[in-house]
Amino acid sequence: MLELPELTPEYFEILVVRELRKAGFDVSGVRLHRRSTFTEPERGYLLELAAVVSRGPWQRRALIACRRQEAPIGRADVESLRNHLKEAGAVAGILFGTTAFEPDALQAAGTGALALLRVTDGRTAFDTSGWGTPGHYPAWLPAYCAQTVGRDMLGQVRYQLLEAGQGDAIVNQLEVPAPTDPDSTAQPIKERGSA
Length: 195
Description:
The protein is of the alpha/beta class. It is 24% helix and 31% strand. It has helices at residues 9-22, 75-84, 103-109, 122-129, 167-174, and strands at residues 26-37, 45-55, 58-68, 92-97, 114-121, 144-151, 157-161. A seven-stranded mixed beta sheet has the order 1-2-3-4-5-6-7, sandwiched between helices. It starts with 8 loop residues before the first helix and ends in a 21-residue tail after the last helix. Mean pLDDT is 86; it is low at 177-195.
């Protein structure tokens, strides 16, 4: 079995931009907002990237969190992202995690303006996607893929491979009511072509 490349912060940044573009987003103005390393025994890191994400006329300033960790992602991790939105000048958050999501993480993200995605290795994604025969991998298969995180009909956490052009599944999670505070620094970017 081939060994996966190390998911360094630099690799993770390239991966999330690639996956968002694959889903149909334009991603621009990417800049580092925060980077921190988790102490033992957790091992891993948090990388936060501020960017502008758009899909057709829809456009938002977003904070993209890349969490590489071993413990499942829970409510506190999602709320941490939500708490950092305003300081980053963002109105939407996208959390990519390398581990399972706990049900309370989905509940915390459920109030809008946050999308959750799990990063998994390409072979696991292929085996569970129905693309072909499990165990027989095409040469084009990437080392890592993203999966949307949601609930199934029974309310259990469900992961679904993020495929080309599926940006609407993310946009729907990122929609927020219009802010009522006219002085808010976290205003949505006007849609292209609007006055």
